[in-house]
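Work package 3, deliverable 3.1, input record:
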Amino acid sequence: MRAPGAEAPASRRVPRTTPRTATRRPVRRWLTSYALLAPALVLFGLFVLYPLVQAVRISMTDSTGIGEARFTGLDNYARMVGDPVFWRAAGNTVLLALVSVPTSVATGFGLALLLRERLPARGLFRALFLAPYVLSGVVVAMAGRWIFDQEVGVVDRALTQLGLPAPDWQSSGAAAAVSVFVVLFWARTGLVVVLYLSALQGVDRDVLEAAELDGASRRQRVRYVTWPLLRPTTFFVVVLMVVEVFQTFDVVRVMTGGGPAGATEILVTYAYAQGFQARAEGYGSAIGVVVFSVVLLATVVAWWVQRDSEEVA
Amino acid sequence: MSAPVRERRGELTVRPRPGRVRRPVRWPRLVVVTALALVWVFPLYWMVVTALSARADLATGRVGLVPTSVDLGGFRRALVDLPVLQWVVNSAAIAVVAVVLTVVVDVLAGYVLAKHRFPGRTVVFFCIVATLMVPVQTLLVPQFDLVNDLGWINSYWAVIVPRSAEAFGVFLARQYFLSLPDELLEAAQLDGAGQLRTLWSVVLPLARPLVAVLVVMTFTWRWNEFAWPLVALRAPELYTLPVGLSFLQSQYTTDYPALMAGALVSALPVLVLFALAQRQFVAGLARSGLR
């Protein structure tokens, strides 16, 4: 694995100038470099960095998208504190992360272990598990909505035939939340499987063999050798999944629309509803800024911990 | 995370790996994996069955796990009565133009950031990689205002141009070019090739695997994208397929054969691409875990 910064020292060791380029004027070479970078600089500057600054600015106004907006300072953030729907959306988002990240990591790790060793059609299995991940969130949500339809859906039909109660997936809040979780689990676990599979290739077989010779059982080898060796991967997977959960928009928006009665509302769907449906651009932006802060914080903390653990190793 | 481990053991290639060859297929393992795989494929299978069923049969619960008859009404309603085909064309046009634009930007920026030495390089790279952390939803409102000011609302440029700033692609390209030996580029320059010439005739031919990954990933992202086109495109005839499908889902809630037919039309291209280019997908995804 290569961390973005890891190469920098290595590439600096290369002589700064080759004999040929030393005779050229450096400013001209720099201009060429910037000319080739220009498309990226313009696009990232205009369409990512500038809007990011704007998001913070709009979040401090009462903008509705129409007419002049008034500067209102931190009013939108204060409104958030007293907004029960915001807290419900925030709670749902955290709950989704707490439930779905460990389940996906555990299942993905288990499946990767199962798929690692001699197994017919290994590649096919891996492809099958990954397939839902390449589908659009809209398609995933439509399939989920249909499978969990409370009138004629296949899940309720199966439950009824087994003599079990058939939940009202659309009108009961708890049931709706469960259905969203199951659908996201189906769509995303394949990524975890693939990440663990590629990490497992880097696990030293000699270490596992040594453990086996020392009498470690299969379970002990996984528990005391493989799992600790894959700690950096697990760490990355967890960060990635947390960041994804906080940005889960498509599936929730299309499958439940945040309903019934806000039971499946999460932060990003609420930000969209405020910014584009309630025409409260300022308030919607403020929620977006909060989501960004959480993602930023998660990534920075992750990067920090990761860096420390690499220095120790 | 694997590289250091491998480097530390120099005898890697010398020693045989005992125990790998003789291990037989483990049947319990195969049964568990197969059962899970069936569960995983079932939603896709059920989409196909639904799309090929008659609406009345579904409503009365007469469709079994194995369908006994095929009804193309769902596909007919989706493709003929509803504008799904138009949305397919829109999505394809947007995805293709976006792929070209994005890949050019990614390759140029990735190459320069990996191999050129100039003041500000680290700052530029840091600023671009930092945008990986910005959620799309945070930018929806200001990007909408910006695109509105540019007069692009309800035009494909609104969807294509802002999304061509794809930090992950730049990151991937830079990582790839870092592994190109400097000697190669120096040799080209000693032969009298200028910077642009070196890029065109030495670097680009070597970048084919990278371009393949970038094309596959970018196409999939643009084809599947939902939140931004939902905001930027207001006229139904301009919708992309995911936006159009979500609109149908809200309008024709109970016509599941037509909805599933539309969803399959959206899923099929990426599934085919995935089947053909699995290696590229996995390469891109495995790297995405490293952001």
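Chain B touches chain A through 113 residues (CB under 8 Å).
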